[in-house]
Amino acid sequence: MRYQISGKQIDVGEALQTHVRDDLDLVMAKYAQRPTEAIVVFSKNAHQFACEATVHLSTGLTVQAKAHDTEIYGAFDSCNEKMEKQLRRYKRRLKDHHRTRSEPVESFGAASYILASDQDGEESDTDTLQPIIVAEMETKIPSLSVGEAVMQMELAGAPVLVFRHEGKDGLNVVYRREDGNIGWIDPRT
Fold it and tell me: What quaternary structure, including any partners, is listed in this protein's UniProt entry (predicted)?
């Protein structure tokens, strides 16, 4: 597995990097057979350290977790525990997913934009229906079954996931509803 361990405006020493590699190796060996890449980013906000970890699995699924603590090692340990809990919860489905899928998850590129919000809710003199684009990025839209999409959304901790339903042409959306259930938007084509 390839590791990318970094810090935002803080120095991440060799001892912490070794700790991260060893602990992630233990969790991944137990729950996910073929992880390809781990990205761990540490930052500091006032008196607390934050740890954000993302592990990409060879099937195309992604596991993400975030945690805060007053100690940098504690932040990583909490983050690692959250990731382990997610993987433990989905272990059977991940293993079943490996058996039925011989190829990695296919994905295609799409543009992702960040739009500016109205300042203080006031409308400007040049108000049009065209939003102001603040940033533009490239993103991937995976081709998944509905069950895999729900699992990916929950592993990533995201409120919504856009995906292409396998065997169909249109884009689908799964999202977490206010009542705690999962919603699925499947356009008729």
Answer: Interacts with 100S ribosomes.
Q: How many domains does the chain have?
A: 2
Residue located via tokens 């993103």 = 139
Same domain, 88 and 119: no
Asked whether residue 122 falls in the same domain as residue 79, the answer is: no
Measured CA to CA, the distance from residue 149 to residue 92 in angstroms comes to 16
Contact 157, 65 (CB under 8 A): yes
Distance between CA atoms of residues 55 and 184, nearest Å:
25
Tokens linked to 92: 């059977």
- How far, in Å, CA of 128 to CA of 112, rounded? 21
Mean pLDDT of 61-73: 90
Range of the domain at 117: 105-185
Query: 36 by DSSP, 3-state: which?
Result: strand
Query: Strand, coil or helix: what is 186?
Result: coil
pLDDT tens digits, 49-61: 999 999 887 767 7
Summarize pLDDT for 104-129 with one digit per residue, the tens: 566 667 777 777 776 555 555 555 67
Nearest Cα to 27, choosing from 109, 111, 86?
Answer: 86
DSSP state of 24: H
